[in-house]
Amino acid sequence: MPQRHPASRISLALLIAGMVSLGMLLLTLVMVGQSFLGMERAKVTAASSAAHQLLINVDDRLRTLTTPSAATMALLSHDPLGRAVTLAERLERLPAISSILQASDVASAIYVGYPNGEFFQLRKVKSSGSVQFPDAPPGAAYFVQGSAAHGSSEQSLRRFYDAQMRPLADRKLEGQIYDPRTRDWFRNAIRSTQSELAPPYVFFTTGETGITFSHMASEGGAVFGMDASVSDITDQLSELKPTPNTHVAILNDDDKILAHTGQGETNHPVLLAAVHQQGQTIADSSVRRFKVNDQHWYGTTRTSSLLPGEQLTVAVVIPAEEILKQVWELLTRQALIAGLIGLVMTILGWILGRRVAKPLEALTDHVSQLSQFRFDTWEAPASKVREAHKLGSALDNMASSISSFQRIANVLNRGQNLDGLLHDILTQIISIVGEERGGVYLFRRQSETLGLAVDKDPNLPRQIGGIAATQDDASVIQNLRQRLSGNPLVTILRNRDGKLVGALVIEMERGDHERLSDELIAFVQQISGSAAVAIETQELIESQQAMLDGTIQLVANAIDSKSRHTAAHCSRVPQLAEMLVDAATASNKGVFADFTMSDEERYEFRLAAWLHDCGKITSPEYVINKAVKLETIHNRIHEIRTRFEVLHRDADIRYLKRQLKGDDEAAARQERNATQKRLQQEFAFIASINHGSEALSASDIDRIHNIGRQTWQRHFSDRLGLSWDEEQAAAEHPEPILPAAEPLLSDKPEHTRPWGEHRPPVQRDDPRNRWGFDMTLPDFAANKGELHNLTVARGTLTPEERFRVNEHIVQTICMLDALPLPDRLANVPRLAGTHHERMDGQGYPRRLTRDQLSIPERIMVLADVFEALTASDRPYKEAKSLTESLGIVARMVSNGHIDRDVFELFIRSGTYRRYAQRFLDPEQIDRVDERLFMTPD
Q1: Contact at 8 Å (CB) between 597 and 605?
Q2: For residue range 266-283, what is the model confidence (pLDDT) as tens digits?
Q3: Which one of 64, 265, 626, 925 has the largest count of C-beta atoms within 10 Å of its C-beta?
Q4: Closest by Cα among 548, 612, 607, 534 to 64
Q5: Of 100, 112, 20, which is closest to residue 368 (Cα–Cα)?
Q6: Which domains does the chain carry?
Q7: CB-count exposure of residue 115 (10 Å: 0-12, 13-18, 19+)
Q8: What is the distance between the alpha carbons of residues 814 and 857, in angstroms, rounded to a whole number?
């Protein structure tokens, strides 16, 4: 066989070096190529996701601006300002109205337009970041303008106030007279029963462009309005920008830009290109890439129907280079690292080719696995050659680091619990650095301390004090090093706003502890940024949850504060209900054997319990507080007593006239005395009936009517000094010629008030009734008739007033059903609206039976009843002892009101006793014989 010339053979060192170089080059090209293609796809996906999410956030932010404002207007419609007649009465409401302006970031003015053309407004002097009144005196914070009729003349006011609502200076009224009845916001509101939102227009007073919320007052025909300038809305939207150069704009149908968060001209060419790409309007929610002035952008639009009568378009454009800037930097860094590793491998292969032949084969296999993105199967090959061993270890560490990055990404995507999230991130970061011990501290702003959240080192201190939020990173690191032992690597964690959120500590136990490279420190700082993101995200979620809980408790406390008769009811019922739910979950008997509730179901039940009486905010206060039968806004027994006084005085007059005529004085005196004695007795009887403490008999009702038939002479017109509502009620009935004889007690036609347009949809056959209500509706919305009220058989409430009290549960369901609750809270309206149902189906508002009520709903029924029975802060009844209250509940169980299983659980678990120890007065807590209330086995 012929021998080949040695020069035609390749040396092993060169072959190995070439193969290593070629392998690393191919691996680098594959990784860079795959990364490049992946980044291209990720760029478009990230642009779409960022733009769509921003559109959703903008739409949500617009709704967070309009929805609370509409709710504020609905509450404001009940304010006495809508019924105020004089300027003095209206000025008395300034503190309440100014507090609403102070609490709102976007509201610039609150005003009222009256049906007679009068106008009253409170406006911020500084709005949209500038002073709107050039003639405002120093220190002025508010401007008040108003007009009111005063007899035959008209009063007007134009006055400035400081921030404490102290008057500063008056100004003369000049220019065009403002008539609210000619304005769209006034016209829209009087034709609607809810809050209205006017399209953008130029404000009359300040010349700003903005929108107006308006709502008709509950009484009197006035209309409340609230202004929000477009500039203030722009400031709100600016907070949503994900990148510095992102532009967000709101446009109308004419492509006029109403609000723009970017810099420069209002008609920004990039925004116009996004809305009309290549002459074609972009479909809502589609994302397209376009080029303007040699710069690439991603743009999308979304329509919004928040403003009535006008379609708005929200446009978002994001610079392409800002979306994945950090990802491109990471790609460049990875390519550089791969190139450096390839260079090192080439040099080692050339120098140590002969000695590393066998280990090189194993490394080639591993490199092949790496080229297939199999990072979790690496194992360094055994070799006596130091260089080959180091190369294997380096590749092993690289694969481990890449795998750790992947696991960190998975943790961030799937983690929900903050402690677990931080623990997994700490584990991965320590693994990447090649150490074993470390910890994550969280900053507590109130106590100015760092608390150890998670750790892999039992020797770390649990808390480190003396940390101020204003300290820079160097000061915080110095403070930590003084408290930590060993050679820790400390990285400060800050959120996207640069605020201190915590610190990452890694104990460096390998290598040169004295000389930590800047590259290692920078590397740890970059990858530990994921921990700061996780902390910030979780804090945002928890703060939103805390805000929701706080708002719900605020509503409950406001309802309790509305009436002294129900004080603390809305806060005690949830606590009792949750105690019963805990007992039901722990029980393994009867219907509760399989009863469980998840954390989300418990939270849903808790919210419903706190909001179970939120509808009482619409209940008339005089009905809730009605202590006697004749009470409305005041106790009308005083009017009836005055009539008795007239008859008493008439008896004296008849006596004197008989003397003047020469009649027998003794007989006249006897007649007078008998009449006055009878009147005293009759009034005492009427006054006792007014209390409503005892049930009326048929004879009592007949006596009331007989007393009421007595007449007295009225000489003054009863049509003077009436409110608008009273005038409307009396307009259909002619006034008798004076003097006129009137009965002592009467039910006049003007005492009734029809339902009109406010008829509630509570009857089963009402087409508006989509909630399944089944309640009896009285013929009238109100009946203030004196005989009608005095002849109420039991208690003090008429059927009309009893309905208004019961209607609070209808309002509770409607109000909660109108909220945009997430799916996990979808049962809140039903859970909150069933606590007045009965097991026998005779409750309200839906007449549900026991089988139609869940265990939590049956628990709510008992909790509501028992709290009311044992409450000691009700002025209309004495507090009952435990035994008395349980006896009443037991009778309610027997007559089908309360569920027997829940009641016996209440007794058996001792929940009644624990509740009593927390909330009842000591004198109410007596010894209870539980056997009296339990069904024998």
Answers
A1: yes
A2: 446 777 676 666 444 444
A3: 626
A4: 548
A5: 20
A6: 44-65+235-325 (3.30.450.20), 77-226 (3.30.450.20), 415-543 (3.30.450.40), 567-617+825-924 (1.10.3210.10), 637-754 (no CATH)
A7: middle
A8: 18
